Amino acid sequence: MPVSTLTAHPALADVVAALEDVYPTSWAAPWDRVGLAVGDPADRVAKVLFAVDPVEAVVDEAVTWGADLVVTHHPLMLRGVHGVAADTPKGRIVHRLIRAGIALYTAHTNADTAAPGVSDALARAVGLTGPLRPLEPDAADPDGRRGIGRVGALDAPMTLRDFAARVAAGLPATAPGIRAAGDLDRIVTDVAVSGGAGDSLLDAARAAGVDAFVTSDLRHHPASEFTEQPGAPALVDVPHFAGEWPWLADGAAALSDSLVRRLGPDAANVETRVSTTVTDAWSQAFPSA
């Protein structure tokens, strides 16, 4: 008896194609490893979990929820490996996913540069409104919309102190919290943001003429030298996980819309879920005496 299109779920191959309609793998950086990492393209997909990191806690969540596919922002195997034995951290993840019948897909720098992408979600989370423009445009984009980072404005000027508090309120709570560099009474109106590590974009933030730059993983020496420069923007450093987590809901919504466009509403019956598991590498912070 044929299966009704109202109850059948799409194949993993169709879900991957829908993801890549929105986040083409050709947009990824040459060093990146995006796309399907684990899974049989012929398998059916009913539930998709979106998460930042492909780690044990996320696999636990996927198994408990009954996910058929996990879409992560960060790759599991960014650097080459010569085996996936289950007694290694990455191999253990691969084995657990396969045994549970769960596929793994990565959208990393192709989601960073997309419009909207990771930094658009971060910009909205920290209160930027109105049109956004790339901080570092993608030279291959004729429309000038894609690129790394975003530049926008707050709905009303505020002090750096209040802006940093707004950033903290708009992102998931983590042990390290939010750090700021600069005069806390400085007025902030125009802001640049970049999900992920933003050391390489410090000069671009200064050239953009913004009052503050929100990003992650800023190192001591570059940050110190940057803030000593006259007229340099203030810096707001957020945990890497927290700065990229806001994109998950956008990615889930984009997948749902793309499936409807590709397959039609009756065949696009896939449930999505955003992981709330905090996977920041730093689990504890101890204030100095």
Automatic annotation (TrEMBL):
Pfam families: DUF34_NIF3. SUPFAM superfamilies: NIF3 (NGG1p interacting factor 3)-like. InterPro entries: DUF34/NIF3 (IPR002678), DUF34/NIF3_sf (IPR036069). One of its GO terms (cellular component) is cytoplasm. Homohexamer. Belongs to the GTP cyclohydrolase I type 2/NIF3 family. This is GTP cyclohydrolase 1 type 2 homolog.
